[in-house]
Structure formats: structure tokens, C-alpha cells
Specification:
Layout lengths: L4 E5 L31 H13 L23 E3 L4 E3 L9 H7 L4 E19 L5 E9 L2 E9 L9 E21 L12 E7 L3 H12 L8 E8 L11 H5 L6 E6 L3 H15 L4 E5 L3 E3 L1 H13 L5 E8 L5 E4 L3 E3 L4 E3 L9 E2 L24 E5 H7 L10 H11 L4 E11 L13 H15 L8 H14 L3 H15 L5 H14 L37 H17 L12 E3 L6 H4 L4 E5 L6 E5 L2 H36 L2 H11 E6 L1
Parallel strand pairs: 8-9, 8-11, 9-10, 13-19, 20-21
Antiparallel strand pairs: 1-7, 2-7, 3-7, 4-5, 4-6, 4-7, 10-23, 11-18, 12-19, 13-14, 13-18, 14-17, 15-16, 21-22
Helix pairs in contact: 9-11, 9-15, 10-15, 11-15
Length: 667
């Protein structure tokens, strides 16, 4: 065992994290798989068979569930006599299929140290989610047991894990590890990483994560530097707890204060500094997250053992519902140039507190991805030297574009199970409206120009024009202004990208005062009371979609009404209705002349008011710009593809950083 390397440590949550217990340790049984939405033929029979085999019939399943009172530390837990717990969980099962696919590992050794009387049973699963018992040993007194486990059958998917049962007396798990006889790609010591956080006025999040990292120094042995790129007006270094929380990280901590260059400007700075300081990797982290520190060690360890330089990313759990998994793997649909799931039966927003890993068949299939979100993503500096830094997109699509660029250069991205953080979910915000709409539109089109394999970008132009019509009909005139500005800038060519990092956002935000629909008020009483003489939908609130079959004639009718029917006089002074956020759909909003709408965060209300003149101007402008895009697509594609390497280069970013760096602080 002396030459064996630790690949993954079994860990437990901190005492205050009762809501994440199911991600670490599980007292329930695997009660059956979650079925995909569409099944037929042999696939249905296979899943039914898996479900039947997965009924564990555990006599202890109805007993007490694991609680933080059982947890003795980050590595150790206690089992009362007669109790069984499973480590077939997100953070503690071993993702065997990922190690088999991306490394030279042929087998893995499970080492478990316990005290007391009991039994350990080792299980494995296959890509269909079928659970199979592998081996078992009786435990007596204080001892360490090992299991040598082959990775041969994990070609398409599957995990290893173990269950513990306390039999004649209480049982304590002292520690457990997954070990491998394998050499790191970068040498015996492995690689070192710069962990970089890009932040914009999220000071408390940064302080909390710095404190967490300082309390888990054993997970930072492979970290060369922790770097915060602070682009906000409220500075992390001004927080009263700053000196206290950085003290444990002495010699490993640095802050760069720079102008707001967006997420891509912050992350590109992390890439740039990691090359400069001699790191082997840069780990990019969002600021509004809660990090599981062990995930940092796991991503670096896995990347060290990959056969080739590989981008390795972590998954995203919901910040406010912490057992809910939102991102297990992501691809870009090449026809639409839009985010997609790797396969149809994958569920977004899956609650592992209600359906554990062992019961969720699709999580046993290995997922191959195009990119990993930069909420947590490890990039080798070898890759940066080969394909460049992020494109200067400010925000949105920078991570997806980089993953596609890497893929075209023969560099894989792996979304690695067992490494994750908690982040505010997409369901709690809507960044497709408001000032961010500019970046969504422009950067999606840039990504299509550079990477789409289809002439004219597949369906991207048609979808873009439809979204313009949708926003215009929804009276979201500020959002639509940003989208149209995006196309105008796109048509000007790639030379606008670096200057736009600092120049474009102030212009977009400055236009807020010109659009009534962009004025957010937190107090509903600041608006006139809703009144109407003849409410649409015959006064009903069941605002159903027209459906795809009726969509075109329905849209034509709605456009005609908005263009030519005069605005109701009462609607000019009073909104006709107030809609909550879930009711804010374009087919509903477009039927009114004036209405109040709650924003996605629930922090305020907008007043949308129909303006036929503005609608005509927007539709005419959108049609003209999309005609230009269609006509000039081939030329624009050549421009952006030819310029991409230079725009993302070290030298181009060096000039931008030199211009916008404010100060540095080392601790």
C-alpha cells in the first residue's frame, strides 16, 4: 500500500449543515429508479429490470436517518448498534466510469478503518443504474480492511460505494479512502493550482469562502495561490474580518483590484496570473457561491491523473435548497447554438434528498460534455498557452465558447462527479431581460459565428428574430434596445470586443432612465392601482399558451392588435393588472396595454406600457439588422474566426489589464 496514491477521501459535512447530509451519507434504501419521461421497447424493459433489482429491502431503511449528531468530524462518523448507512452518495461514491475513461487507472482500492463490530458491503452500479453487490467483510474491534476493485466493467458509466452496518455493538468509521496505483501526469508531486475568484460587490460571500478555505488547509496542499480579482466598488479588503480570515492563508493570498471588466475580464485575469506565477492550473470560481473545500482537492487530483491536459469542472447545487442538483453536465446544441442537456432523461433541479444517487438511474451514466460552467472550473495552463484566454465577452457564453474552442483543439472537458459547490440557481433570477440581454444576444451570435458547423448558423438567426419580436410584444423595450445594440456592435467586427469591456456597460445602464419598463420599484404602492374597463382573457387568470399549432396565426393577430389598436385611455394612467413572475409570459403580457410585473428575485415591480410607435420602430430595426446578418454571415464568420486567436491572446489581454489595474494586495 506504500506506493498507492489517495484519489478520493470519504468526507462528512460540517455540524451546521444538516440540510446537506444526504449528499454525504444516506440511511435510506434505494427504493427504485426515476424513470425517464420517454421509454419504449428494450429501453423500458431494461429500466424496469433495474428498478426491480434496486429494491434493496433493507430492514433498517425505516429506522432513523443520518444526522449531524452522528458525525464526529470531517472524516469520521458513528453508527449505533443495528443501524446501516450507505456511502453511495454524491460526495462519497467513487465515480469509476470517469476514472476509467479519462485516466490510465485500471483498478481502485477501497481502504476503510473502523472501530467496533459490524459489516461492510461494497456495491457497484452500471450505466443503466442497476446495483450489484461486489464483496463484504465482517468488522471486529479496531481494524483496517481493503478491497481491490477492477474498473474494467465501467465503460459507459457506474459507481463504486460501500455500506456500513453496526451489528453487535456501536461502530465508528474512523476514515476511508479510495486509492490507486497510478502516477500523476505532471510528476510525482502533481500539479499546483491558482484558485481564483472573480467578484463584484459580493464581499460577504468572499469573506465566508476565504474563511472556509482557511479552516480546511488539508484540502489546499495542491494550491499555489488564492487570488481574488475584485472589480467592485465595495472592496473585500475593507471588510472588518478580512485580516482575520486571510491569516491562515499567509503567503498564499493575493487581491488584484481592477476596473469592472465583467466575468470574462475577471476570469481572464485569473488565467493570465496563473501563467505568470508558474501554476499548472487555474481554478475559476464565482463569487456568490458556497464551496465544498474538498472539491478543490478532487478536481486537481483528477486533472493530475488525466491522460492528457483536460479541463475539469465541478457541479452546481442550489444555494437555497442545498440537496438540489442543477447542473450535472452541459452541451451546446450545434443547430441552435444554445445550452442543452447531454441526454433527454437527465433531470435539471434533481433533489438528492428525495431521490438518492442509488435510486437515480441517469446519474449512473457517464456524461460527456462540451463545457463546464465557470462557477467552478479547473483549466490547465498548458491549455491556456495553447488556445488563449477567454474571449473578452464581459459575461455570458464565455465558458461555453472556451469549451467549444478547447474541444476543436482536441482538449476534453469533464464535469466531474463528487466535486461541487452551492450557487444561486437560474430559477431565482432572470438575466435574459434588462441590461444583460445585450451580452446574451451578442455573445451567442459570436459563438455561432466562430463555432457553428452550419451555414448561416443553423437556427440561430431565426430564433434571434423571434426573441426580438417576443420582447417587443412584451413591452420590454429596454431589453429590446440592448439586443438591437448587440447586433449593431456585432456587425462592426471583432475589433470592438476589448474596448467594449469597459465602455459598453455604462452606456447600456445609462439608458435605463429613458425606458419606463426598466424602472424597478420595490414598493407596489408607488404605482397607481390597477384598473380596467374590459379585461383581456375575459377576466380569467388561466393564461395558457396558444400552442405551436396556433402560434403563427396567434402571433400575427397579436402583432396587428399591438401595432394598430389605440392604447386604452385608462391604461395610460393605471395598469390593467398585476402579474406575478410565473405569469410573466409573452403570450400573456402581449394581450394587455399596461400591467405591473414582479421581477424574478421578488424584490420589485416593473410597469410595462404599450407604445405602438416604439413597437413599429423596434420591429423595423430588428428586421433590417437580421437581414444584414443573414446577408453578411459568411464575411462576419471569417472576420471573427480569423481574429479570435489574437483577441483572446496573452498579449491582447496584457494591454487591457495594464490599462485597467488599480492596485494589488498580498497577504
Amino acid at each position: 500500500m506504500a506506493d498507492m496514491k489517495t484519489l478520493q477521501r470519504v468526507i462528512l459535512p460540517e455540524a451546521v449543515q444538516t440540510d446537506v447530509i444526504p449528499l454525504y451519507i444516506d440511511s435510506g434504501s434505494a427504493t427504485g429508479v426515476q424513470l425517464p419521461t420517454r421509454l419504449d421497447g428494450d429501453a423500458a424493459k431494461t429500466i424496469e429490470k433495474a428498478a426491480a433489482q434496486q429494491e434493496l429491502k433493507n430492514e433498517n431503511a425505516a429506522g432513523p436517518v443520518a444526522t449531524t449528531s452522528d458525525v464526529l468530524g470531517r472524516r469520521s462518523t458513528h453508527l449505533a448498534a443495528g443501524k446501516t448507512v450507505s456511502f453511495g452518495t454524491y460526495f462519497n461514491a467513487f465515480p469509476a466510469s470517469y476514472w476509467r475513461r479519462w485516466t490510465d487507472l485500471k483498478s481502485v482500492t477501497l481502504r476503510i478503518t473502523t472501530e467496533g463490530a459490524g459489516m461492510v458491503v461494497v456495491y457497484k452500479s452500471n450505466a443503466r443504474g442497476v446495483i450489484q453487490r461486489v464483496d463484504a467483510k465482517v468488522l471486529e474491534g479496531a481494524e483496517t480492511v481493503t478491497f481491490d476493485l477492477t474498473l474494467a466493467p465501467f465503460g459507459d458509466g457506474g459507481w463504486y460505494w460501500f455500506d456500513l452496518t453496526a451489528t453487535k455493538s456501536d461502530l465508528t468509521l474512523v476514515e476511508a479512502d479510495w486509492l490507486g496505483d497510478i502516477q500523476p501526469r505532471l510528476g510525482e508531486a502533481g500539479g499546483k493550482a491558482t484558485v481564483q475568484i472573480t467578484t463584484m460587490n459580493k464581499v460577504q460571500y468572499c469573506i465566508d469562502n476565504i474563511r472556509s478555505l482557511g479552516n480546511n488547509l488539508d484540502a489546499l496542499e495542491t494550491v499555489k495561490e488564492i487570488l481574488i480579482v475584485d472589480q467592485g466598488t465595495e472592496k473585500v479588503q475593507d471588510h472588518p474580518d478580512f485580516e482575520e480570515v486571510v491569516a491562515p492563508l499567509a503567503g498564499k493570498f493575493r487581491i488584484i483590484n481592477q476596473a469592472n471588466l465583467g466575468g470574462s475580464g475577471g476570469f481572464a485575469r485569473g488565467m493570465f496570473e496563473s501563467v505568470n506565477n508558474g501554476s499548472d492550473y487555474v481554478m475559476l470560481l464565482d463569487d456568490d457561491v458556497v464551496v465544498e473545500p474538498e472539491s478543490i482537492l478532487r478536481l486537481i487530483t483528477f486533472a493530475d491523473y488525466c491522460k492528457n491536459p483536460t479541463i475539469v469542472g465541478g457541479h452546481m447545487f442550489d444555494m437555497y435548497d442545498r440537496s438540489v442538483l442543477h447542473a450535472f453536465g452541459e452541451v451546446v446544441n450545434p443547430w441552435r447554438t444554445f445550452y442543452d442537456k447531454p441526454h433527454e432523461d437527465m433531470s435539471l433541479g434533481h433533489d438528492l434528498g428525495r431521490n438518492n444517487l442509488r435510486s437515480t438511474h441517469w446519474m449512473h451514466r457517464r456524461v460527456d460534455v462540451d463545457y463546464n460552467g465557470w462557477w467552478m472550473c479547473l483549466i490547465p495552463t498548458e491549455v491556456i498557452n495553447k488556445i488563449g484566454l477567454s474571449l473578452p465577452l464581459f459575461l455570458k457564453w464565455d465558458d461555453a465558447e472556451y469549451g467549444l474552442r478547447a474541444k476543436e483543439a482536441g482538449i476534453a472537458t469533464v464535469s466531474f462527479p463528487g466535486a461541487a459547490l452551492w450557487h444561486v440557481s437560474w430559477q431565482d433570477k432572470d438575466d435574459s431581460v434588462g441590461w444583460q440581454a445585450y451580452f446574451h444576444e451578442r455573445n451567442r451570435l459570436i459563438t455561432a459565428l466562430i463555432h457553428s458547423p452550419f451555414e448561416k448558423g443553423g437556427s440561430v438567426l431565426r430564433e434571434s428574430l423571434f426573441l426580438d419580436v417576443k420582447h417587443a410584444l412584451s413591452m420590454q423595450y429596454y431589453t429590446e434596445e440592448g439586443r438591437l445594440m448587440a447586433i449593431e456592435d456585432l456587425l462592426s467586427g471583432p475589433t470592438h470586443l476589448h474596448p467594449s469591456l469597459s465602455e459598453r456597460l455604462p452606456i447600456i445602464r445609462g439608458k435605463v432612465k429613458d425606458f419606463k419598463d426598466a424602472q424597478l420599484k420595490s414598493n407596489l404602492d408607488d404605482y397607481p392601482q390597477p384598473k380596467t374597463t374590459k379585461p383581456p382573457f375575459k377576466g380569467r387568470r388561466n393564461f395558457s399558451s396558444p400552442g405551436y399549432q396556433k402560434l403563427i396565426p396567434w402571433t400575427i393577430s397579436t402583432v396587428g392588435r399591438q401595432l394598430f389598436k389605440p392604447v386604452d385611455d385608462l391604461a395610460k394612467t393605471n395598469p390593467q393588472i398585476q402579474l406575478n413572475y410565473s405569469e410573466n409570459r409573452w403570450w400573456t403580457v402581449s394581450k394587455f396595454d399596461s400591467l405591473l410585473v414582479t421581477n424574478a428575485e421578488g424584490t420589485g415591480v416593473f410597469w410595462y406600457q404599450r407604445d405602438p410607435k416604439k413597437l413599429r420602430e423596434n420591429l423595423a430595426r430588428a428586421s433590417k439588422l437580421h437581414a444584414q446578418l443573414f446577408k453578411n454571415w459568411a464575411d462576419l464568420r471569417n472576420q471573427y474566426r480569423s481574429a479570435a486567436a489574437e483577441v483572446a491572446s496573452y498579449d491582447a489581454w496584457a494591454k487591457t489589464f495594464q490599462k485597467h489595474t488599480e492596485s494589488e494586495l498580498t497577504r
